[in-house]
Amino acid sequence: MSSIKPIIGISTNEITNFGGRQISHSTGLRYVNAVAKFTDGIPILIPSHIKNDDLDQLLTKLDGIVLTGGRANIEPHHFGGDPFPPDEPIDVGRDEIVLKLIPKCVNLGVPIFGICRGIQEINVAYGGTLHYRVHLLPDKNDHRMPRGDDVTVKEIFTLRHRIDFTKNSYFSTLINKDNCLVNSLHGQAIDSLAQNLKIEAYSDDGVIEAISIPEHPSFAVGVQWHAEYEPEKNELNKSLFKEFGKACLNYISKK
Questions:
Q1: In the predicted model, is pLDDT for residue 75 greater than 50?
Q2: Whether the predicted model's global pTM rises above the 0.90 cut
Q3: Cα four-point dihedral sign 29, 35, 36, 41
Q4: Which one is catalytic: 121, 200, 228, 243?
Q5: For 37-74, what is each residue's pLDDT tens digit?
Q6: Pick the catalytic residue: 186, 209, 226, 243?
Q7: pLDDT tens-digit profile of 193-227?
Q8: Contact 74/124 with Cβ under 8 angstroms?
Q9: 116 is catalytic
């Protein structure tokens, strides 16, 4: 008899197709592949617009949550920020479900791995705020992805800058290093850190690049870079997915 695998929910983005005639829920295949290959879990996509009671029932079936990146940013009214310009992409459905999902997972002890937009969602769910455009700040670098029709996937996800782990960081104990290089594909970033969250790493220009939730009884980490890109070639990203997978498997035994 085969061993039981954890069922890992992956957040999705609402995408408008066919000239506005259809809205789909989707996520990048890299997230699904990373979960399947490096956590030894079964990936399941979570659509938006699940009602509160139904979300509670769904969470009884899940053993971990991956919060993915996405083109749309979290709407500022969720953290008291200035309104977006009219042409800014938004994802109302994702905002609604994920910001409810995070505290529910913490209360239940469901392992959480937030990636790019996912780290921002954890911070907002806990009451923190976000910078709208990091590259417009006087002391920050441009953290956005390279642009242009001829830019390759490899160029988009190339290692762009160094991050330094904080003292006694979970990350430094995980790979026995004080820093590493990461990719960078984000416009927004954490501004004020929410209470009850811990900073695990900064970029070389002072942007918060990784956080954890100390009150969570298990794995609860958010990273600003895209850890799902070729984790087999990156010691830290591979280790994060594997540790997340172990936490999800352990969660099964505690249900």
A1: yes
A2: yes
A3: negative
A4: 228
A5: 999 999 999 999 898 899 999 999 999 999 999 999 99
A6: 226
A7: 999 999 999 999 999 999 999 999 999 999 999 99
A8: yes
A9: yes
Q: CB-side exposure of 161: number of CA atoms within 13 Å?
A: 22
Residue given tokens 């997915």 in the structure block: 241
* CA gap 13, 46 in Å, rounded: 9
Question: Is 105 an annotated catalytic residue?
Answer: no
What residue segments make up the domains of the chain, in order of their start? Answer: 7-254
In angstroms, the Cα distances linking 208 to 146, 176, 180, 234, 245 are 21, 20, 14, 20, 24
Fold exhibited by the domain 7-254:
Rossmann fold (3.40.50)
Catalytic member of 116, 131, 143, 186: 116
- What is the residue-averaged pLDDT of the chain? 95
The torsion angles phi and psi of 217, rounded to 5 degrees, stand at: -75, -5
Rg (CA), the chain: 17
Beta strands in 154-238 (DSSP E): 161-165, 179-182, 189-190, 198-203, 208-212, 220-223
Give the DSSP letter of residue 136.
G
Whether 180 is a known active-site residue: answer no
Question: Rounded to 5 degrees, what angle do the CA atoms 10, 11, 14 make?
Answer: 135
Q: Convert the pLDDT of each residue in 170-183 to its tens digit.
A: 999 999 999 999 99
CA distance 241 to 238: 5
For 246, other C-beta atoms within 10 Å of its C-beta total 16
Cα angle, residue 109 at apex, residues 105 and 114 outer, rounded to 5°? 50
Distance CA 11, CA 46 (A): 5
Q: What is residue 95's DSSP assignment?
A: H
